[in-house]
Every structure is written in structure tokens, then in C-alpha cells.
Design a protein that fits this description.
Elements (H helix, E strand, L loop, with lengths): L1 H16 L10 E5 L14 H10 L4 E3 L5 E3 L2 E7 L2 E6 L13 H12 L8 H4 L2 E8 L2 E6 L6 H4 L7 H5 L14 E8 L2 E6 L5 E6 L3 H10 L4 E3 L4 H8 L4 E16 L9 H9 L3 H7 L5 E3 L22 H10 L9 E7 L2 H15 L4 E7 L1 H10 L4 E6 L7 H6 L17 H11 L4 H18 L2 E14 L23
Helix pairs in contact: 1-7, 9-11, 15-16
């Protein structure tokens, strides 16, 4: 099998890349599956935009390995449950040379909170009642109601106030205070930055097809890439001379979602049977190449608000069949579900395996695959019985309100399964209103137990991050959420 893959890739390399060599580039080149949508952090929501904006813009607050908020540009004090005081560190400077002050911070967040600007981040900040600049380095935030998570909400890149008022096009010509500064975005496939402390040039090269992206790496036209590769290509890269593959645990949460307004998928016995009728370990081992770990909840257990005492659903097809039988879901009442997914070949392959495994416990599954826009539109509109998706880059536990609170049914949130539970709503509100972190942790852990019992989602796995480099790159550190911060330290050997 591997020899056939090698032959295929070699032939494809000759046919596809013979006339497509990347231009000479002094610096390092990072291969992407897709370019960012915008370089304005006030509007960035896609993964590529968020990750590249982190390199360009400094932010008041960041997160440590347990996803606890920590100071970045600023430290803070909680003067009261409604009053936070932030102090910017000395010598914070934009790439333009201008000093970063609290006037810039206030202008950035005022723009996000302005309804006319239609920032997608406005809802997470609308608890701010007042922003008062004390001096260049100190500003107070006064809230409408207590929010223990508030510092973690201030993780959006800071823009220069003067350029905001001038209507500067940050989306294509960013000016920030991060580790990198913008150089050029000459076309849809190339974006160039420069590392501020040593002038190292970094090129982002967009190559949608993963096979072509891999071949460009082997050929030396890019120096590194991260994720967005099927396991067979990772296996191929692992045996190539001069190529190094590294894996690290990730927080990308893959799951099955259900429509609880549908009489078939609303049956709790059916969802319980599905949860234990899936052989996660086999899929992780044989399809994902071992690059994942079974999931328990939306938050991984090593998150500060995660629940390390939860165990993943254990594969037990006999028990699954017994659950269906006890619920009368056999024979003429054998359950049938339509399972919607994207038309990405790798995701469709996984869906086909899940279809086969569920058939083995007595659940008939019909697959429907669509282009991303159609698929995602159907999910948001509730036009499904069962679907699979992935949550990426979750940092704050307020995701539980957004995904599971009964008031968050689209368009008011992402409770796409129309899940309604007074107990879950109460636990979410108790966690949000907690006065101490320990009280919040207790409520969030109880919340995750309740959600696991109800199974509006069936957790599948947390996918690993995979970083691949040539010998031309050293020192990259893989982040759990898949960000590109490792580029701040990379060097040439």
C-alpha cells in the first residue's frame, strides 16, 4: 500500500509541480490549506485569520497551557465583582513605532461594541458598561453584572486609535504590536510577514490540495506545515529524508450532534446506544493514524474548567443492542437516521465507518454529504437528524451557554440541536454567577456530567495537532489549540 502511495505521489509530483515551483524566498515558508479571510482582529472568526492575527497583534490577555487567562500586554486587578483595572506593561510599541496606550485599547473595544461595525465579537463584550482611561497605561472596565471570566474576553488584538478613526484598511494592511509585522499580500496565495526582533521573513503559502501541499514540502518549496493532512500523507512524510513529523495533543473536539426536535433523534435511548455503539479506539488507530484521543466533553479534561473524572463512552455493541431492544427500537421499529456531513473526502470516510458500525447495533444510517456552505446552512437551520462537526480553539467555558443553553437556539447562539434542559440552564447560570473560581469549577463539572447523561452531543475524540518541517526549521513549539505562536521562536539550523 505504501509503495503504491509513494509511486502515486512521485508521478503526481512530476505532473503537477514541474512548472509550479515557488519563487525564491529569503526566509521561511509555511504551507496553509486556506488563506485568512481578514487581518482585522475585530472581524476574524476563521481559524487561519485568528492564528495569523495572533502573530501581528498584541492583546491584553492570553492563555496558559491549562487555558487559564494570563497577562499579555497588561496585568489586571479585580477591584470588585463589577470593576477591573488593567495596566499596560511598559515599552509596548506598534510596528509603526508609535507607543501603545490605553487610548488604543479603548478605541479598539469601542469599535467592537459599536453595533454599526457589526463585529462578531460584540456579544462576548456587551457586558461592559463603562471604559474609563485613567492614564496612558491604566484603564478601568466597569461591568453591568459580575463575570469571573471577564479578563479572558480581552484577548482580541489591539489596533492604533488614530488609524481606527482614519478608517485604515486593517483587513489587508494590518498594523499591530505583535511579534511580526505585515510586509505584503500580493495575491490570494501568498502573504508575507517579518519578525520584528530579527527581521526574519515569513511567507504563508496557500495550497488547498493536501497532496500538492505535501509535495511542495518534499520538494523544498515550503519549509513547514501544520494539520489539515489525511493520515496516509502523514505516514508518507514520516519516511521522507530531511522531513520531520511531530504530534502533540490537541483540543479540537469532534462530535455527533442530534436534532432533539425530531421524534427519532430525540429518543434518549437511541443516542445512548449510538454513544456506546461506536468503536472510537479502532477509528483513532486505523483511520486517524493514532493522532487523537477519545473525548468526554466539549472541554478537554486538562482545561481548568474541564472534568477529569469523566470517562469516554466505552464501546459495547452488545449493550447498545440491549438498550435499543429495551426501548422497543427493533424489528419494524428499527431506527433509521439521516446523517449529514461535508463532502470533504476524509470526513466522508469517517462518516461511512460510523454508518457501518451503527448498522452493526441495529441503527440504519443514510449518509448525505454536501458542500460546506449547504451543509453548514442546514445545521444552523436545524434541517438534520444527525450530523458531525468539530469545535476548534475553545478557550473560555462560556461556550456551554453558546452551545447548550435553551436561550441559545439559532439565531441567538449555537444550540443547533434545540436542546432544552432547565437543570443545564441553571448550572450554566450558576457557573457564570460564581464569586470564586473553585465555585465556577464545581458548577462546570456538574454541568458536564449532566450533559453527558442527556447526550445532546455524542463525543468522539480530540484530534492531535501535527506539525511537519524540513531540516531548514528548528525550535517550533506546538500549541494545544493549533495556533502558530511557535513561529515566534523558529530558527534556521
Amino acid at each position: 500500500m505504501r509503495s503504491e502511495l509513494n509511486l502515486f505521489l512521485c508521478v503526481l509530483c512530476l505532473l503537477v509541480l514541474a512548472g509550479c515551483r515557488e519563487p525564491r524566498h529569503e526566509g521561511l515558508r509555511f504551507g496553509l490549506a486556506a488563506m485568512p479571510v481578514t487581518l482585522d482582529p475585530r472581524y476574524a472568526t476563521d481559524a487561519a485569520s485568528s492564528r495569523i492575527n495572533r502573530l501581528i497583534y498584541g492583546r491584553l490577555v492570553d492563555f496558559d497551557d491549562s487555558l487559564t487567562p494570563v497577562p499579555a500586554l497588561a496585568s489586571w486587578r479585580r477591584l470588585s465583582p463589577l470593576h477591573y483595572r488593567f495596566t499596560i506593561k511598559k515599552n509596548a510599541v506598534f510596528s509603526s513605532g508609535a507607543r501603545l496606550t490605553m487610548d488604543d485599547v479603548r478605541a479598539t473595544y469601542a469599535a467592537i461594541l459599536d453595533p454599526k461595525q457589526a463585529s462578531p465579537h460584540r456579544m462576548s463584550l456587551n457586558n461592559i458598561r463603562l471604559m474609563e482611561v485613567i492614564d496612558d497605561r491604566v484603564m478601568d472596565f466597569v461591568l453591568e453584572k459580575p463575570d469571573l471570566l471577564f479578563p479572558g474576553r480581552l484577548s482580541i488584538g489591539i489596533l492604533p486609535a488614530t488609524l481606527i478613526s482614519d478608517g485604515h484598511p486593517f483587513n489587508t494592511r494590518p498594523v499591530g504590536s505583535g511579534a511580526f509585522e505585515f510586509v505584503d499580500w500580493p495575491d490570494e496565495g501568498h502573504l508575507f510577514l517579518k519578525r520584528r526582533h530579527d527581521g526574519l521573513r515569513l511567507g504563508f503559502i496557500a495550497v488547498k490540495d493536501p497532496t500538492v501541499r505535501v509535495l511542495k514540502l518534499v520538494r523544498g518549496e515550503i519549509d513547514m506545515l501544520q494539520n489539515d493532512l489525511p493520515p496516509e500523507l502523514i505516514d508518507y512524510l514520516a519516511v521522507q529524508p530531511g522531513i520531520h513529523v511531530r504530534r502533540a495533543p490537541g483540543s479540537k473536539f469532534a462530535y455527533l450532534g442530534f436534532n432533539l426536535d425530531n421524534p427519532v433523534s430525540a429518543n434518549p435511548a437511541l443516542r445512548q446506544a449510538i454513544a456506546i455503539g461506536i468503536d472510537r479506539e479502532a477509528i483513532i488507530r486505523h483511520v486517524l493514524g493514532g493522532a487523537a484521543r477519545p473525548a468526554t466533553s466539549l472541554l478537554p479534561p486538562d482545561h481548568w474548567a474541564g472534568n477529569p473524572k469523566l470517562s469516554p463512552p466505552q464501546y459495547d455493541p452488545d449493550q447498545a443492542r440491549q438498550i435499543l431492544s429495551s426501548a422497543g427500537l427493533t424489528g419494524a421499529h428499527r431506527p433509521a437516521l439521516v446523517y449529514k456531513t461535508s463532502n470533504d473526502p476524509f470526513r466522508l470516510r469517517i462518516a461511512t465507518i460510523l454508518q457501518q458500525q451503527l448498522a452493526g447495533i441495529g441503527v440504519d444510517v443514510t449518509l448525505r454529504s454536501y458542500d460546506w456552505g449547504t451543509f453548514y446552512g442546514d445545521i444552523k437551520a436545524g434541517r438534520f437528524q444527525m450530523y458531525s462537526l468539530m469545535w476548534v480553539g475553545i478557550k473560555l467555558p462560556d461556550i456551554f451557554r453558546y452551545v447548550f443553553h435553551s436561550a441559545a437556539i439559532p439565531p441567538d447562539g449555537a444550540n443547533r440541536g434545540r436542546y432544552r434542559s432547565a437543570e443545564v440552564d441553571g448550572l450554566i447560570e450558576r457557573a457564570e454567577g460564581a464569586d470564586t473560581r473553585s465555585a465556577a469549577v464545581k458548577a462546570y463539572r456538574a454541568l458536564q456530567v449532566r450533559i453527558m447523561m442527556d447526550r445532546p452531543y455524542v463525543p468522539l475524540w480530540y484530534e492531535d495537532n501535527v506539525f511537519v518541517r524540513r531540516d531548514t526549521v528548528m525550535g517550533y513549539r506546538i500549541a494545544m489549540d493549533g495556533n502558530f505562536d511557535g513561529l515566534k521562536q523558529v530558527t534556521r539550523p
